[in-house]
Amino acid sequence: MTLRGRFFAATYDRxxxxxxxxxxxxxxxxxxxxxxxRVLEIGAGTGSNLRLYGPAVESLTLTExxxxxxxxxxxxxxxxxxxxxxxxxPAEDLPFSDDSFDMAVSTLxxxxxxxxxxALRELRRVLRxxxxxLFIEHVRAADARLARSQDRMNGMNRFMVGCDCNRPTLGSIxxxxxxxxxxxxxxxxxxxxxxxxxxxxxxTIPAAVPSLDxxxxxxxxx
Length: 222
Hints:
It is built from six helices and seven strands. The N and C termini lie far apart (66 Å). The chain has one domain: Vaccinia Virus protein VP39 (Rossmann fold, 3-Layer(aba) Sandwich). It has helices spanning 3-32, 67-80, 116-126, 144-161, 169-175, 212-215; strands at residues 37-41, 57-63, 85-87, 101-107, 127-138, 179-187, 197-204.
């Protein structure tokens, strides 16, 4: 547990207040309005999404790899979502069986994981066929000049907040086998321009292909 990690966890909510009030909270609300069934949220941080899950959510599982964040998440979950399960786990190594969840949620997480492709493969594994991923994520800018600025500033950004602001996250989601069903390219308010490009959207796991027997009406054919 590092001093920087403790400081970041202790000040995170305060640092994000202006951003949340200027539009991030509304994005969260819109994104999670459709959350339902067995839901997994990775990198849940201090629990910013907890109040936004509605009655359609049958079970809520929250993972967080950092101990200082985990402690704050546990306290907030006890107050706001006492039925939720909170586990310490990195997104790259989720301690769940295949096809365990109907939905997964990632908000401002895939920019900071150590191995983004592996984290997405894990999400694909633990989601059932037809399952859905909901996301709000920093991304590399489409504008070449801004993308170059992101590249220049990324080392400092990684040191300060543990986030790579220039990852091609939408492409990584697709490369992991998800089908993007909705995406909005927008900019985060009240932040430096080089970290402002974000995507808000959803993606699905392809549904299981029926076996030949099932397509033909069963295995007892004469």
